[in-house]
């Protein structure tokens, strides 16, 4: 979209390009993108998805209402690959089948779940480089978060890229490579704001919006919507966000 194209994010794009390049050449990479809500983490995951040419793409996203459902997020990620279950060693196959409700059994061992997920991803990547995108990690159910962090710490000579977006670096993610996503540079913030505005804006009002939002893309798009034409034109002082 035209508005998003104005956002530079050159450093972050280069970082993601490198992660994808390594996966294509058979070297695994893990990257945790973290930052405030609305700062652009999901947009960067979309960029990675668009650039993942020649790779198989699987995705999952944390859902706040599913945080109490064990393995809900892991099921999202793995469901397109469940045709590979029969290729796993029997103990690993059995725990995944139990975790995903495909067969009855005792509560699955979490170490075996992590190992089974790792084996499955590595097996898929033997046929085609694999890119796994996980958004809103902070809302993953605990069991899925542990399993994916386990995988992230153990990927080796596999053509797998695991890219995670999270508001915070939780204990599960603490040892993984990370990049802090911050607000846009001032010039990019102004360009995004100008593209979003539908009425003339006073220079002082523009400066204040850019300053108050700290370059947060979502805030830059949302804040002007609450302002009338007169406020944008500088007729009233901006209310500080609560």
Short description:
The protein has 242 residues and is an alpha/beta fold.
Description of the molecule:
With 242 residues, the chain is an alpha/beta fold. The chain has helices spanning 2-5, 10-24, 41-51, 72-78, 90-99, 110-127, 142-154, 186-196, 203-213, 217-222, 229-232; strands at 29-34, 56-61, 130-135, 160-166, 178-180. The protein has a five-stranded parallel β-sheet with strand order 2-3-4-1-5, with helices on both faces. The chain is elongated. The two termini are 30 Å apart.
Structural class: alpha/beta
Proportion of strand residues: 5-15%
Question: Which H/E pattern describes the elements?
Answer: HHEHEHHHEHEEHHHH
What value does the Rg take, in angstroms? 21 Å
Number of strands: 5
Characterize the overall form: elongated
Percent helix among the residues? 40-55%
Query: What number is the mean pLDDT?
Result: 87
Order of strands across the main sheet: 2-3-4-1-5
The residue ranges in which pLDDT falls below 50 over 5 or more consecutive positions are 1-6
Report the biggest beta sheet as strand number plus sense, adding barrel if it closes. Answer: 5 strands, parallel
- How many H/I helical runs? 11
End-to-end separation in angstroms reads 30 Å
């Amino acid at each position: 979209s035209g508005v998003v194209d104005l956002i530079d994010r050159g450093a972050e794009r280069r970082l993601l390009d490198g992660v994808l390049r390594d996966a294509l050449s058979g070297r695994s990479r893990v990257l945790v993108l973290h930052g405030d809500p609305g700062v652009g983490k999901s947009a960067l995951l979309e960029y990675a998805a668009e650039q993942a040419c020649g790779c198989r793409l699987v995705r999952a996203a944390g859902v706040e209402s599913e945080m109490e459902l064990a393995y809900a997020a892991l099921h999202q990620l793995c469901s397109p690959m469940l045709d590979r279950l029969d290729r796993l060693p029997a103990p690993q196959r059995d725990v995944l089948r139990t975790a995903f409700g495909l067969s009855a059994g005792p509560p699955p061992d979490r170490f075996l779940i992590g190992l089974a997920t790792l084996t499955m991803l590595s097996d898929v990547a033997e046929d085609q480089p694999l890119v796994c995108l996980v958004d809103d990690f902070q809302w993953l159910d605990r069991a899925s978060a542990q399993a994916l962090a386990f995988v992230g710490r153990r990927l080796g000579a596999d053509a797998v890229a695991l890219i995670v977006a999270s508001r915070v670096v939780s204990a599960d993610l603490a040892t993984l490579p990370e990049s802090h996503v911050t607000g846009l540079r001032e010039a990019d913030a102004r360009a995004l704001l100008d593209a979003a505005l539908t009425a003339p804006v006073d220079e002082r009002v523009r400066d204040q919006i850019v300053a108050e939002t700290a370059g947060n893309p979502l805030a830059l798009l949302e804040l002007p919507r609450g302002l009338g034409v007169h406020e944008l034109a500088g007729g009233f002082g901006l209310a500080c966000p609560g």
